[in-house]
């Protein structure tokens, strides 16, 4: 804790702040030096006030600057550090209701998207392939709930040929996904003209068909109950 002076409502207040314990640049424990502090941008009358303090890492091979935002409680002037994340939110566009058929697909596909955004393309490819496996198996289980245990342990190719005979377009997309997906997983790449973007495109097309089927089932239940 360190005491600093900050102006609120034109009066200088002495408040205690926590000093950050590690440097966000080099990740080491440090007692950074306080370089400057901003004025408060808010009043303390009814709301939390906020201000920022600029620090500098104390390690001679780092010496980088960083800012920390504090919020001040209006009643007792206690302060807390606002946690910052510099990772911009990653948008994943998936068809509506697909999470009702396969929540795992949504989770894994989202993680693969994060990996791709971080340029971890090798990991992303394997992740997309895995997300497709969950999507297709969960869809098979959705159509045939009594076969759940069997489907879980079946190889994906067999699930596709056994349970998707009513969905030839999904069968074709799934075949393309598994061909490219195997390339992402295995040591020898066989299909050099297709890449991770094609893999994603085919997975999303599959998800689109599956989400449509889910919506169709809901419409069917609705119209046959009235
Ligand atoms: Zn540092």
Which outline best applies?
Answer: elongated
How many strand elements? Answer: 6
Largest sheet: 4 strands, antiparallel
Portion of residues in beta strands equals 15-25%
What is the radius of gyration? 27 Å
The poorly predicted ranges are: none
Helix-residue proportion: 40-55%
N- and C-termini, Cα separation? 67 Å
Tally of individual domains: 2
**What's the quaternary structure here?**
single chain
User: What is the SS-derived class?
Assistant: alpha+beta
Report strand order across the widest sheet.
Answer: 3-4-5-6
Order of helices and strands: EEEEEEHHHHHHH
| Number of H/I helices | 7
Give the mean pLDDT: 89
| Bound molecule types | zinc ion
Q: What would you say this structure looks like, in words?
A:
- The protein has 226 residues and is of the alpha+beta class.
- The chain has two domains: 80 residues, no CATH class; 127 residues.
- Helices cover 46% and strands 17% of the residues.
- It has seven helices and six strands; from the N terminus they run ββββββααααααα.
- The strands form two sheets. Strands 3-4-5-6 form a four-stranded antiparallel sheet, with no helix packed on it. A two-stranded antiparallel sheet has the order 1-2.
- The longest helix has 29 residues.
- The chain is elongated and about 75 Å long.
- The termini are far apart.
- Bound molecules: zinc ion.
- Zinc ion binds next to loops.
Please render the helix and strand layout as text.
Layout: E1 2-8, E2 11-17, E3 33-37, E4 49-56, E5 65-72, E6 79-81, H1 98-101, H2 103-117, H3 121-143, H4 148-153, H5 156-163, H6 168-185, H7 196-224
Antiparallel strand pairs: 1-2, 3-4, 4-5, 5-6
Zinc ion (ZN) binds next to loops.
